[in-house]
Amino acid sequence: MPRWRRNGGALVRGQDDGKRSEGTAVRVDxxxxxxxxxxxxxxxxxxxxxxxxxxxxxxxxxxxxxxVPGVAHVEIDAEGHLELVRALDVLKTPTVLVLDADxxxxxxxxxxxxxxxxxxxxxxxx
Length: 126
Known about the structure:
InterPro entries: Thioredoxin-like_sf (IPR036249), Thioredoxin_domain (IPR013766). The protein is an alpha+beta fold. 29% of the residues lie in helices and 27% in strands.
């Protein structure tokens, strides 16, 4: 599991050898997600079991990922990934992160998104 730390307000992954990595953007990789990143962008959804808006969010993000080539949708159970939830300051579900091809978080939102908003947010990532 990755080690996370704050660096000037930004969240960066720490090195296992004790050296600190420098960075200004939050970055997530396939090992963190347990799934491959999309070639162009990734929609990461943090959900919980009894969250009704999470089900609707899953549907919207799945549709958008199916429409836009190179975009992946990854859903993460917030309760099962508490270290990542804490590291990324996920406070409620659903929380959606839009990652670019390198895994940098370019946009985040909480609550059920509208399809048009998701497509617009992807414009920043691709």
